[in-house]
Amino acid sequence: MKLLRWIRVQRPTTQLLGYQYRVATEIIEIDLTYLCNLRCNNCNRSSAQAPEAAHIGLDAVRRFVDDSLLARRNWCRIRLLGGEPTLHPDFMAILNELERYRAEYPDTSIQLVTNGYGPKVKRILQSIPKSIYIENSSKNSDVQPGFGPFNLAPQDSVAYSWADYRNGCAIASTCGLGLTPQGYYPCAIAGGIDRVLGLQRGRSRLPPPSDEMRDLMDTACRLCGRFRDGHYVPERLRPPLLKQETSPSWQKIYEDWRSRAGTATHYSEVE
User: What is the DSSP track for 31-79?
Assistant: First the structure.
């Protein structure tokens, strides 16, 4: 399957067959914060590799709701992630905004993805309305063998010299649009990549379904280890990932990020 994926993303194949994946237009993931109380190795939001208490603004979530209602976007699923999303300082207010949307579209599933770690997170989880579906991974370690090697950039391999990164991967079609503190992206991971690059290239307002955001894929996917396989590979079919794996491009990106950030990162909100 990996060989077939490699063939599929080569430029001549892409010119012949078109792009492999498209962004699902009825589902969206919202990265509420990059703050995390666990900061696992190989985090695909770089919450461990480039830790920062950066949050999406409540006003941005309110605009998302307003724009969705105005455009009559009937979201099948809205997922809230991070970092650890419950650590957002306006977390409950954000839930209220999304409930305002669901008052118009009651069939929309609102889901929270949490690590379930630590007393503060557990306390917040107890106060979440039962109408919110909670996906609790119950992590207790910063080593997650089931994670993928996010920081092995395809562009660092000569095998991908002729890849067309605008093909994206299955995340675009299974997880959908991403709304992050940097704006809207073809997936939330792409927004996290933009954060550590120090860029703000996301769309500032809700893009129409016709916007495939191939320009953002071209930049982000060349850095994302998920691009290699393209689709999700079950844990039993891949070796456990027991340490941080970081290719040269990512080493340079994180070095540059630390130079910009200095030593000003704080974690006062984490218990």
Answer: E-BS--SS--TT-TT-TTTS----B--HHHHHHHHHHHHHHT---SEEE
Q: Please report which helix (H) or strand (E) contains residue 97, including its range.
A: helix 91-102
pTM above 0.85, yes or no: yes
pLDDT at position 236 is: 86
β-sheet with 183-185: strand ranges across: 133-136, 109-114, 77-81, 27-31, 177-180, 183-185
Q: Are 118 and 271 in contact (CB under 8 A)?
A: yes
Q: How far apart are CA 100 and CA 106, in angstroms?
A: 10
pLDDT of 184 over the 70 cut:
yes
- Residue 238: predicted pLDDT: 87
Structure-token pair, residue 24 = 């699902």
User: From CA 228, how far away is CA 186, in angstroms rounded?
Assistant: 17
Tell me how far CA of residue 239 lies from CA of 80, 145, 149, 151, in angstroms. 28, 8, 11, 16
Lookup result for tokens 């039962």: 130
Q: How far apart are CA 93 and CA 59, in angstroms?
A: 10
And the tokens for 45? Answer: 């939001």
Per-residue pLDDT reduced to its tens digit, 103-160: 999 999 999 999 999 999 999 999 999 999 999 999 999 999 999 999 999 999 999 9
Q: Closest Cα to residue 80, out of 100, 107, 56? A: 56
Total number of residues shown for the chain: 271
Is the pLDDT at 252 greater than 80? The verdict is: yes
Strand segments, DSSP code E, in 177-244 are 177-180, 183-185
- d(CA 62, CA 65) in angstroms, rounded, equals 5
Give all domains of the chain, ordered by start, each with its CATH number: 2-255 (3.20.20)
